[in-house]
Amino acid sequence: FDLQGARARAAREAEPSGVVLKRAVPRLEGLRVHLRCRAGLEGLLAEEVESRAGDLFRVVRVRRGGLVAAARRAWRLEEAYRLRRFDTLGFEVGRGGGGVGEG
């Protein structure tokens, strides 16, 4: 019997977590958003971002399986999920080189 595991399960069941789509993501200089799609659809995804979300994101780089974008302003996840040609969204959290806690 794993007491710690049982407590963790009970806590998750009591207070399920979720993603708040309406919460604002501040415009942070250097924050990159990765929009991933099926290989071969990168160009279509870039066109969609530019035409439907050009006020939201600037396409930084198109690469196999998706693209990298920078936010032009504060935004909400629900705005990004209005785009139809990507399947997952991720954030680039660090590149190394002089950040806090590095030694």
Question: Overview of this structure, please?
Answer:
By secondary structure, the protein is of the alpha+beta class. Helix content is 26%, strand content 26%. The protein contains three helices and six strands. The radius of gyration is 18 Å and the shape is elongated. Residues 98-103 have low confidence and may be disordered.
Structural features:
103 residues, alpha+beta
What profile does the largest beta sheet have? 4 strands, antiparallel
Q: How much helix, percentage-wise, in residues? A: 25-40%
- The geometry reads as elongated
The Cα radius of gyration reads: 18 Å
**What pattern of helices and strands is seen along the backbone?**
HEEHEEEHE
Approximately what portion of the residues adopt beta-strand conformation? Answer: 25-35%
Structural class: alpha+beta
Poorly predicted regions? 98-103
Number of β-strand runs: 6
Overall average residue pLDDT = 88
How far do the termini sit from each other? 40 Å
Strand order in the largest sheet: 3-4-2-6
List the total number of helices: 3
Question: Would you kindly provide a brief summary of this structure?
Answer:
The chain is α+β, with helices and mostly antiparallel strands and 103 residues long. It has helices at residues 3-14, 42-52, 77-80, and strands at residues 24-25, 32-36, 57-63, 66-71, 75-76, 88-92. The protein has a four-stranded antiparallel β-sheet, with helices on one face. A two-stranded antiparallel ribbon has the order 1-5.
Secondary structure layout:
Blueprint: H1 3-14, E1 24-25, E2 32-36, H2 42-52, E3 57-63, E4 66-71, E5 75-76, H3 77-80, E6 88-92
Antiparallel strand pairs: 1-5, 2-4, 2-6, 3-4
